[in-house]
Design a protein that fits this description.
Elements: H1 10-20, E1 39-43, E2 46-49, E3 54-57, H2 60-64, H3 73-85, H4 96-106, E4 114-118, H5 121-140, E5 146-150, H6 159-163, H7 168-171, E6 181-184, H8 200-215, E7 220-225, H9 241-252, E8 255-259, E9 283-286, E10 298-302, H10 304-308, H11 332-346, H12 349-370, E11 374-379, E12 384-391, E13 396-397, H13 400-412, E14 415-416, E15 418-419, E16 430-433, H14 441-459
Parallel strand pairs: 3-14, 5-6, 5-7, 7-8, 8-9
Antiparallel strand pairs: 1-2, 2-3, 4-10, 9-10, 11-12, 12-13, 12-16, 15-16
Helix pairs in contact: 3-11, 4-11, 8-9, 12-14, 13-14
Length: 460
């Protein structure tokens, strides 16, 4: 770490942060008597705070974003060069990096042919919701407007996306919400809602169909799902689930919107999480890993059929998608995304993600053998979770305070991990691991060795 960060002058930065900055997802009362943490430098998978302490970052920037690691000069150079040439123009016109990235990205997404640029993952999902609602008015007299979403899934922070939010603690106090969003059950077999069933995947799909029939298929325009539920507990879908969802969408003419804000651009070992399951979505939203946090960018990909629906009546002045996203016109995002994609390809990071993900899951399985508090381990690629329980037989969730104590103990040992947090009442009990795609075997082993020590200390 650069020693200049440790100068006495840096105390002014801490003071300014404490006095002026409102941090995300943070209760600020403790900062009246203690310093906020400031991350000042990053290289590879390691970051340093204002005290010079080194941490192994196993959550890729705290929210599953820095997929190719810190300190990538080639991405910074690409952004700098683009900004000097042309930094911004409204998205009603094109740009060189916007055109080039769209071509390269969509080549990785068979069936998708259009890319809409916007500001954030929340906004990308809002765009999809607006498209569904507009099509409902244009083609169905406004009736086919409902959007299904899943318990435990998360789609963003706006009132619109919270209306499709399956995490009640994230939603609390922000209602009333927008009408027309309908919840379907989660698909976590470890927490089966149906008791012991021979085919949990099929039962979960049947539960969605029950909601469709209850609401009326002619009222439902789309279903929005994460390929792997992220903040709701790292929930991998049961066998046959996605195939069943696809069949329901075809049967009832429902658009399939897959939220890849977390899983997209390599997190699960493929470019997109849905590509593990052979489904063909109508819309795919993405953000976080698209440029690994080197510039702000989010996108919504659609099929050509969906795109054509907004130009099939050019004489109607309201027929096109009447939407704008101010910073969707920034060129830094697609410039960074092009170089981010090149790094993933040239360094074989999808393959590395698969290999290191298998190592991580193997290590977590060993932790389950050693610690009775580990009830279930699950994941895909470098996106894994360990659900902690007070009792394996009853599967009673571990005390949330103890789960957070494990996170804090790992932090004190120099390893940053995550956990479900203020999301699902009574079930904020899953440790979350999402190292950068550049992770090496020693990084994975250091991560799980540290968790092993923390579990032993907190749970005995």
């Amino acid at each position: 770490m650069d020693a200049s960060f440790l100068s006495n002058d840096f105390e002014d930065v801490v003071a300014a942060d404490r006095t002026n900055v409102w941090h995300h997802m943070t209760q600020h009362k403790p900062y009246e008597s203690s310093d906020p943490r400031i991350i000042v430098e990053g290289r590879g998978m390691r970051v340093w705070d204002q005290k010079g302490k080194e941490h192994l970052d196993c959550v890729s920037g705290g929210v599953w974003t820095v997929n190719v690691g810190y300190g990538r000069e080639s991405i910074a150079d690409a952004v700098r060069d683009q900004l000097v040439k042309m930094n911004y123009f409204a998205g009603s016109a094109g740009s060189i990096p916007g055109a080039r990235f769209s071509e390269r990205l969509l080549a990785k997404m068979p069936g998708m042919s259009r890319l809409y640029y916007c500001n954030s993952g929340s906004e990308a999902n809002e765009k999809a919701f607006k498209m569904v609602r507009q099509l409902s008015h244009q083609r169905h007299g406004g009736k086919k407007s409902k959007i299904l979403y899943r318990e435990r899934d998360y789609h963003g922070t706006t009132i619109g996306t919270l209306s499709a939010g399956g995490q009640d603690e994230r939603n609390a106090h922000y209602g009333p919400f927008a009408p027309g969003f309908v919840r379907v059950p989660h698909c976590l077999e470890y927490r089966s809602q149906y008791g012991e069933v021979s085919d949990y995947g099929a039962r979960s799909v049947a539960a969605i169909e029950e909601v469709i029939l209850r609401e009326g298929p002619d009222t439902i325009g789309a279903i929005c799902l994460e390929p792997v539920t992220a903040g709701g507990g790292v929930i991998t879908p049961p066998e046959g689930y996605w195939e069943g969802v696809q069949e329901l969408c075809r049967k009832y003419e429902i658009l399939l919107h897959i939220d890849e804000v977390v899983c997209g651009i390599g997190r699960t070992g493929t470019w997109f999480g849905y590509q593990h399951y052979g489904v063909k979505p109508d819309m795919v939203s993405m953000a976080k890993g698209v440029a690994s946090g080197y510039a702000a960018i989010a996108c919504l990909a659609t099929t050509e059929e969906l795109f054509d629906a907004f130009k099939d009546n050019p004489d109607d002045p309201l027929n096109y998608f009447r939407d704008i996203s101010t910073f969707g016109g920034c060129t830094a995002g697609p410039a960074a995304a092009i170089e981010n994609m090149r790094i993933i390809e040239d360094e074989g990071l999808l393959e590395n993600c698969t290999a290191m993900g298998a190592r991580l899951m193997g290590n977590l399985a060993e932790l389950k053998e050693r610690h009775k508090v580990v009830g279930d381990v699950r994941g895909k690629g470098l996106f894994c979770g360990a659900e902690l329980v007070a009792d394996r037989d009853t599967r009673e969730p571990a005390d949330e305070r103890k789960v957070q104590a494990v996170v804090a103990d790992c932090m004190a040992r120099g390893v940053i991990i995550g956990a479900t947090n203020r999301s699902v009442p009574g079930f904020n009990n899953t440790l979350c691991f999402s190292p950068a795609l550049i992770a090496k075997p020693d990084d994975i082993d250091h991560l799980t060795d540290t968790v092993d020590q923390a579990l032993g200390k907190i749970f005995g």
